Amino acid sequence: VRELNLNINKNRPEKRMGVNVSEQVGFAGLQTDAGAAPPSWTPSDRAKITGETKTNYQTILRHAELQNTH
Questions:
Q1: Closest to 43 (Cα-Cα) out of 54, 29, 33, 22
Q2: Could you read off the pLDDT of 8-44 as tens digits, one per residue?
């Protein structure tokens, strides 16, 4: 199983409320502003995102949202 990249890009200039979090979080099957999943991920890779990984991802997303609103 490929290791997931959960690295939040902290160098982006956008800190305003409403910034697109999905563009900042490298994650299997996540939609970017362009509307496409990262090209390096296949459908089978995306299908492996279940259970604990989803829970961890929700925590990461929430953290990113909080960072962007302050």
A1: 29
A2: 555 554 444 444 454 445 554 454 444 555 556 565 6
